[in-house]
Amino acid sequence: MEGFPLLTLLLLFPLAGAAVALFLPPEKTRTLKSWALGVTLGEAFLVLLALLSFRPGSGFQMEERYAWIGALGVSFHLGVDGISMALLALTGLIFAVAAIASWSPIIGEHRVKEYVVFLLLLEAAAVGVFTALDYVLFFVFWEAALIPTYFLILIWGGTRREYAATKFLIFTMVGSLFMLVGIVALWLGAGASTFSIGELAARAGELPANWKKWIFLAFALGFAVKVPLWPLHTWLPDAHGQAPTPVSVILAAILLKMGAYGFFRVLLPTFPDVVRDFAPVIAALGVVNIVYGALATMAQLRDFKRFVAYSSISHMGFVMLGIAAGTSLSLGGAVFESVSHGLIAGMLFLLAGLWYDRTHTLDMTRLGGMNVATPVAATLLTFAAMANLGLPGLSGFIAEFSVLLGTVEVFRSLVYVALLGLVVVAAFNLIMLHRVVMGQPREEFALLPDADRRELWSLVPLMAGTVILGLFPSLLTRLFNGSVMELAAYLGGGR
Amino acid sequence: MVGVGILLLLLDLFLPSRRTVLWLVALGGSLLALASLWAVPVGRAGLGGLVFSDGFGMFFRTLLLVVLLMVELVSIEYVRGKGIPEGEFLALLSFASAGAMFMAVSIDLVALYIGLELLSLSSYALAGLLLADPRSGEASLKYFLNGALASAVFLFGVSIFYGVSGSTDLGETARSLAQRGADLRPDPLSLAALFLVLGGIGFKLGMVPFHLWVPDTYEGAPTPVSAFLSVGSKAAALAAFLRLFFWAFAPVRESWTAALGVLSLLTMILGNTAALHQRNVKRMLGYSSISHVGYILAGLAAGTVAGFSAALFYAAAYAFMTFGAFAVLVALSREEMEDLGGLYRREPVLAFLTLLFMLSLLGIPPLGGFWAKLFVFRATVEAGMSWLAVAVAANSVISIGYYYRVIRTAYSSPSPEEAPPLLAGLPLQLGLALAAAGVVLTGLFPDAFLRWAEAAAFFP
Predict the structure, then answer these.
(1) How many helices (H) and strands (E) does chain B have?
(2) Cβ(B362)–Cβ(B399) under 8 Å?
(3) CA B334 → CA B93, B219, B339, B422, B452, distances in Å?
(4) Which residue of A76, A181, A201, B403 has the fewest C-beta atoms within 10 A of its own C-beta?
């Protein structure tokens, strides 16, 4: 596989898939959906190939670099390290799952062709973000991810879709403009000769301290909106709550991770000293995310999707806390949490969608008694809730435990607060289970069909993922250990 | 000189009244002119030293001819549908373009003035060609009254320079400015003349505070004419502006860069904030074009080679994206925001093009508008005018407000009750495709265009 442009292929494959979908007849919805599934499965296979040819260790692999705009130092530069490889693997899996979930009645027959095109474009953009090593390329993919997402919410979303899509667009657009300002400032500061992320990171040390601080803040703002870090999170419950099920899955599993990934790819290597200065602030905000997210979830025990959305905010707090602490254990935990949360939030959204398709309600107080009505789905929900609250043996536990363990020597008191948050996390998951699973179902919901084969096909891989990663975490950690240790050493040396 | 040649060629051929032939001749004429640009020797003066053929003139003439070609392509159906007299329309358009090109190559104050008047007089008439629509007449009259004043002001400035230097040659003007002033500062009389000239050109550019005619005229004029005014006419004004300020007034650069910076700031802020409230898309594009002039001026305020070539690049990118936005309106033959509603369902391709042009106007990479802003940004920062760079960035954020509204309307709002059938003839499609290609190519290969702009940037 040496020298084979696998990453470019990864990028072009869904793009080509989208281009072909443009020429498929719009009324053949089955063909279109099968096409989407085929392309995402093919892409997942390519990701698997990349995974197999990836050699654990530090530094970038499978690099490809072609000159693009020579005069400005822009190049078409792709490459992966352990962290991007982990997220790439998640992307391959989640999009295939989302393609399966797209058979759900919520998409139905409504403009399926455009839906498929946007879905595949979004996949290409996500792959691009996780592989780009050039700022212009990175930004292009970052923005390119935004536009299909916007339309996916706007056209196929719930009743308040227009509001949700607009809010999403404005928040993330303003965030990315700040990032763009940061990119341009960094480029100018380093002599306006290269947009390479790596080369600029090496040169950023020479910038004046004040300058560095402002550039850091511009980037951090752009990424924090995406994560989202409190208090920039308000778009998330609306966007995730209103998006159609498969898109909610992608939003939670992939798009939030782009924000965290920005910290790993850009901020930690480029501004290690500024990150150190701001670490307490980021960590504190991360803990606010955990606690505030958990408390807010408690208040959302009606709307199922908003419930999952707020619980995502809480979990993303762990990612940020791990990043801020900057030890190899906490950083590894943050990557692990990124992947693990992708699987778990994906399951929860799929289940919320499953019942919504049958009952047309997201109101948990109206569900109830689902272990009688739909025992299989109820079992899956129980599993997902357990994974969500961090049951040992499942992936969420490993992730949160390593974040807390890695952070305890750096921000001891914050860890205590985060632990309190964990109690609330456990509580809301149990209350949710109590509402949805226990009791007797309402009369009109007593005869609901249970999870069908298609739904199982979308849920079981995610479930298997949480179990496998929970039992054999080293499968994932060996991918990114090298990169994470390198980053930790760079950040603070042996701390 | 080639510009004059084309003018005569077109003039003669416009006498017959067979209609299709007219269009073919017009299109053929602009293509021929475009091709003949390659044959023009570079670095030669002509017409007894009134005009000078250099890389700069070449850049603007190419740009203006491409614009003319695009305007002709998109206007065929529109002009016929609205009952605009075709012969007059084409003849005036050709005259205006010839005047514009003449401005781009002039190195003499009087020649510059002649070009300006040719462009202006034709434009006044063009704006009023929608004979049945009173708004068109209003547009024309407003444009004329303001324009006549601006011309007078410009001419007054020119006459002072003549009195001071004894010559209308731009090189002579520069020498006399350098002699009379001290320490890169002009004497008071020259300074007054300089600002009079700035006012005259600023009017054509739509620079604040000489912008008041822009929204009214764009709204009332036939849409292809609005497109021409906002793209072609502005490019010519920019060319004249550059010739004057970076050639003739270059010795006293210190005296006007700061003023230009402030004007640039005011122009972008006013254009952007006013655009936010518009319901009429043409009006909104009018204000948007004002704000883009602000960005271009920001590059010029830097007063460096980088700023100069940034402005040239911006002019090219701006021409394609703004023209494209107007061309979409031509295709709709409507211009209120609601008329864009549901465009995505009716005409997905046109909706996609709208998206493309709006994103480029917003400055999203990898489209031409992004690089244009980036170059301006770089030039201002390097020139130590970071405040202006910040203003460019902040204004780009504001501009999300109105460009986004166009996108949202096109993609999600319901279709209007009764929509006239879209114009979709082959020429129109070609024109739109040209504009889209321009936006994408300047975006994907900015370095090629920038090199061209740098080669065109004369600098003392």
Answers:
(1) 20, 2
(2) yes
(3) 22, 11, 6, 9, 37
(4) A76
Q: Are A125 and A375 in contact (CB under 8 A)?
A: no
Q: Which residues of B touch A173 (CB under 8 A)?
A: 400, 404
Chain centroid offset of residue B326 CA: 13
Inter-residue contact B32 to B433 (CB < 8 Å): no
Q: Whose structure tokens read 């609601």?
A: B338
Among B316, B212, B327, B360, residue whose Cα is nearest residue A143:
B360
pLDDT in tens, A337-374: 999 999 999 999 988 888 888 888 888 878 877 877 88
φ/ψ of residue A79, rounded to 5: 180, 160
- From the number of C-beta atoms within 10 Å of its C-beta (0-12, 13-18, 19+), residue A439 rates as middle
Is A390 within 8 Å of A396 (Cβ atoms)?
A: yes
Residue with tokens 């990150």: A275
Report d(CA A319, CA A347) in Å as an integer.
Answer: 19
Q: What are B137's two structure tokens?
A: 């007449």
Q: Work out the angle at residue B447's Cα, subtended by the Cα atoms of residues B443 and B452, and round it to the nearest 5 degrees.
A: 110
- ipTM topping 0.90: no
pLDDT in tens, B364-414: 878 889 889 888 888 888 888 888 888 888 888 888 888 888 888 887 777
Quote the tokens at residue B335: 């211009």
Q: What number is the average pLDDT over the span A387-410?
A: 87
Q: Which of B365, B412, B451 sits opposite A140 (nearest CB)?
A: B365
Report the length, in residues, of chain B. 460
Longest dimension (CA), chain B: 67
Q: Is residue A398 a contact partner of residue A340, using CB atoms and an 8 Å limit?
A: yes
In total, how many domains does chain B have? 1
| Phi, psi for residue A71 in degrees, rounded to 5 | -60, -25
Distance from CA of B404 to the nearest CA of A (A): 9
Cα–Cα distance, B320 to B100 (Å, whole number): 17
- Burial class for A492, CB neighbours closer than 10 Å (0-12, 13-18, 19+): middle
Which residue of B lies nearest to A161 if distances are taken between CA atoms? Answer: B412
Query: Rounded distance, CA A377 to CA A391, Å?
Result: 19
Task: Looking at the complex, report in whole angstroms how far the Cα of residue A140 sits from the nearest Cα belonging to chain B.
Answer: 6
The range of the structural domain enclosing residue B74 comes to: 2-456
CA distance B392 to B269: 9
